[in-house]
From TrEMBL:
This is Uncharacterized protein. It comes from Hymenobacter frigidus. Residues 41-204, 739-819 form the MoxR-vWA-beta-propeller ternary system domain.
Length: 821
């Protein structure tokens, strides 16, 4: 029997096996093989639609039919409608026969859950990406990562056998049921696609541009402050707009490099082509080299007098004509070989060519067109929206030869025409022949390559010659991550002056903290970092000072601590729909953050986490994500190895930690009244702000003395005002509620729940004052002009402007009290 007969026999045997539905499966044929329906009875797809999709997949071979049908169902608008089809799929494996090599039930449930999640992602795509010709592109991209069930060599013959109708008689007879192992293999590609495309946005980006991620933007320098009168706003430069958007920042960087390097060859002209050199007039102004020869006939004195009196005559040369300005046309290849990185490279070259053309002298108009497989489409390279739309111009044709020939026949030949295409296409016989036919309509040819090489050719007298070449590091220009940037915190513009100082001019007392292994980290070489009950992140660099507030609010969740051993503490926060890593640089107070929730498909709950060797290992449904904190990047996305959960290195002596973060004070929290004493001192909830002497230090200290101490008596208080019991948020952390009070003269203040009191006088010449409300230890105060006084525990060891307690009381506190009367 001939080889052809063997192949025919094989195809005839395979067709029923491939197209017949297994017994008790989630789909089946009905209506004499014209419709595929769910086991529930709902229509899944029609035979014509299935045939069109399978024909589009023959180039790489046919995937399992079950996966194709599920993807077809997700592309339909009815997928999102409520029904029991998803439930049928969930439980279909339970009726399948078992085998020794079957995956576990937990693995099957996990796989089906991920299949359904990915089908939801496909269903959420815009309609123009899952219908018509783009639908075939979607199927090719999804199944490109899977080995075909039917090879590419046999796929077309198999579909021809199916189209012949010879297999229709057996479609009504179910074949033997598939095993759980086969079922798992058929759906594996759809489950794995969720890792590649976890969101509709990621899938849409890949379908439109061929890129899996957008180039990261570089940080923009802060604009210098210019104290001038405001001018009318001018439209921003296109390149600046591209650089400011995360989607196009890498494109802007590459384009600026090309603008500097890409030079457009000038037109060569012969000397006889320039109509200059004649005499147009005679004038009494000019240079001596243009003096009429007849003027030299005068004697020296007469000639000098004529020159001085502007009576001498000069020749006036003809003005050279304005150079011819030829319009320039850019043809941008958008066919298959230009997808992905070459697409961005080519667009950057087109933008650079257009910029250099318009900045030449004189400027040349530029028109741009996208060359598809058959047609040319006008492009807008002058606006931001036009550039973004150009990135989405893709054509699945193998090359743009037919469109190039059609463009040459329909467009006028005047002007300089540039074609931008892939370098490898020059070696394709069909395209090379069509390019040669279109050569007379072209002036320049620019080729790009995935390696970063760019070559510019010029056509002269029908011959193509290399004009210039260059090479660029596309990975660095397009995908280099932006340098780590510290978080910027919003400060209230209408609140107390103390809140507008970054960092805070005083150290904070500790409030709302119950030290435990879940919220506190301690390292002798770094200090103590804790997260309070109200999600504040406080840091104590030593036991001799209060706390620095590194972050006013951190998300609630499970906290996992780590450190680099020098000056940086890492905190990973894990909760439902949340996975973030913070880096607290304790030496400078800067905070950096990276959000990883999208990398783990938005977790439903807190995930298992281990910090090891400077890396966070996060176990999620797709494997183990490894984040390198020192390099601040993801090292591995789906590692299957999750390290054993070692015991935490933080085993503090809680007594030692409490002494480290508190030198023996209590914070005055419950304040309902503020007034004055008979000795002209502030009284805060019965505690007098007094100047106490320290015999040991031979200095005065600022302290809040209880009404039960000394001669303080409640009867001598006056000017008492109540504190508003209703609090209001003033900071980003809305759990911190400030409370207001005011005196009749207009002076007043705010009680800060962080253990502070802010005072503002009705006398505008008195700076605002902030007091630390601690009992049992000396306190400290700050004035809005930057002056501090009191305990170094709250002011720091070396404040810039420090007064003695006596001077601060005289210059600030007493002036505030005096205005109250």
């Amino acid at each position: 029997m001939s080889e052809l007969a063997n192949e025919v026999k094989t195809v005839r045997e395979l067709a029923p096996v491939y197209f017949r539905n297994p017994k008790a499966y989630f789909w089946r044929w009905v209506e004499k093989g014209k419709i595929v329906e769910w086991r529930s009875g709902d229509t899944l797809c029609y035979r014509e639609e299935l045939a069109r999709v399978l024909r589009g997949l023959t180039e790489h071979g046919l995937p399992p039919l079950a996966s194709v049908l599920l993807l077809l169902a997700a592309c339909a608008d009815t997928w999102s409608e409520p029904g029991d089809n998803a439930s049928v799929l969930k439980h279909s494996w339970q009726q399948m026969p078992t085998a020794p090599d079957d995956p576990s039930e937990a693995a099957l449930e996990w796989q089906i859950r991920h299949v359904l999640l990915f089908l939801d992602v496909v269903s959420a795509l815009p309609g123009n990406l899952r219908t018509g010709e783009p639908k075939l592109h979607l199927f090719r991209e999804v199944f490109s990562a899977q080995a075909p069930q039917i090879s590419a060599e046999m796929a077309s013959a198999l579909l021809d056998e199916w189209d012949s109708g010879r297999t229709d008689t057996v479609l009504h007879f179910s074949r033997s049921p598939v095993t759980r192992r086969v079922f798992s293999n058929e759906l594996a590609c759809l489950a794995q696609s969720l890792n590649r495309f976890p969101t509709p946005e990621a899938l849409a980006l890949h379908l439109r541009t061929g890129l899996d991620k957008l180039p990261e933007p570089l940080p923009l320098p802060a604009p210098a402050a210019v104290e001038t009168a405001p001018l009318a706003a001018e439209p921003a430069d296109l390149f600046d707009q591209l650089a400011q958007d995360v989607r196009t920042a890498g494109l802007a960087r590459l384009t600026r490099q090309l603008v500097a390097a890409l030079r457009i060859p000038l037109h060569a002209r012969g000397a006889s082509d320039q109509p200059i050199g004649g005499i147009s007039d005679v004038t009494n102004r000019g240079n001596f080299d243009r003096l009429l020869l007849s003027e030299l006939a005068h004697d020296d004195h007469v000639l000098l007098a004529r020159l001085v009196n502007n009576e001498a005559l000069y020749l006036r040369r003809e003005a050279p004509p304005h150079p011819d300005v030829k319009p320039r046309t850019v043809l941008l290849d958008t066919t298959l070989r230009m997808w992905g990185v070459p697409r961005v490279f080519a667009l950057a070259a087109a933008l650079a060519w257009a910029r250099n053309s318009r900045q030449a002298g004189p400027p040349a108009p530029v028109a741009a067109f996208a060359l598809g497989g058959q047609h040319a489409t006008p492009l807008d390279l002058d606006t931001f929206d036009g550039v973004v739309a150009t990135l989405a111009q893709l054509d699945p044709a193998p090359h743009a030869g037919p469109a190039l020939l059609a463009f040459g026949r329909t467009q006028p030949a005047a002007g300089d025409c540039l074609l931008i295409t892939d370098a490898q296409l020059l070696h394709q016989p069909v395209f090379a022949r069509q390019l040669a036919e279109a050569g007379p309509a072209l002036r320049f040819l620019l080729t790009v390559d995935r390696s970063g090489e760019l070559q510019l050719y010029e056509y002269q007298n029908g011959h193509r010659s290399l004009a210039s070449t260059a090479r660029y590091d596309l990975e660095e220009l397009l995908f280099t991550a932006a340098p780590r940037q510290p978080l910027q915190f919003r400060t209230p513009t209408d609140g107390p002056a103390f809140l507008q100082q970054v960092p805070a001019p005083l150290y904070f007392p500790v409030t709302g903290l119950r030290v435990s292994i879940k919220n506190t980290f301690y390292a002798a070489e770094i200090g103590v970092l804790s997260i309070t009950d109200r999600q504040r992140v406080l840091f104590w660099p030593s036991k001799d000072t209060g706390a620095r507030e590194l972050l006013p609010e951190i998300e609630s969740g499970a906290y996992h601590f780590g450190a680099d051993g020098f000056h940086t503490v890492y905190v990973l926060v894990s909760a439902r729909r949340l996975l973030r890593i913070y880096a607290f640089i304790t030496a400078t107070g800067e905070v950096e953050m990276v959000d990883l929730a999208a990398e783990v498909a938005t977790p439903d709950d807190a995930l298992p986490v281990v910090f090891k060797d400077g890396c966070y290992h996060v176990q999620w449904a797709g494997g183990t994500l490894v984040f390198d904190c020192r390099r601040w990047e993801i090292r591995d996305h789906r590692s299957s190895i999750f390290p054993a959960h070692a015991a935490s290195a933080f085993r503090p002596d809680f007594g030692h930690i409490k002494r480290y973060i508190n030198n023996g004070y209590n914070v005055l929290h419950r304040v309902n009244h503020v007034g004055l004493s008979n000795q002209c001192a502030l009284v805060i909830e019965g505690h007098v702000l007094a100047l106490a002497s320290s015999p040991r230090k031979l200095t005065h200290e600022l302290q809040l003395l209880s009404k039960n101490r000394g001669t303080v008596n409640e009867e001598v208080f006056h000017g008492v005002v109540p504190v508003d019991p209703k609090g209001f948020p003033l900071l980003a952390n809305e759990q911190l509620l400030f409370r207001r009070f005011a005196w009749p003269d207009g002076s007043g203040g705010l009680l800060d729940p962080r253990g502070l009191l802010h005072l503002r006088s009705a006398d505008a010449t008195v700076p605002e004052i902030t007091l630390v409300l601690v009992l049992g230890q000396p306190t400290a105060a700050w004035a809005a002009d930057g002056t501090v006084c009191g305990s170094t525990y709250f002011t720091g060891p070396n404040p810039a402007r420090c007064l003695s307690v006596l001077e601060f009381n005289r210059l600030y506190l007493q002036r505030f009290i005096a205005h109250l009367g």
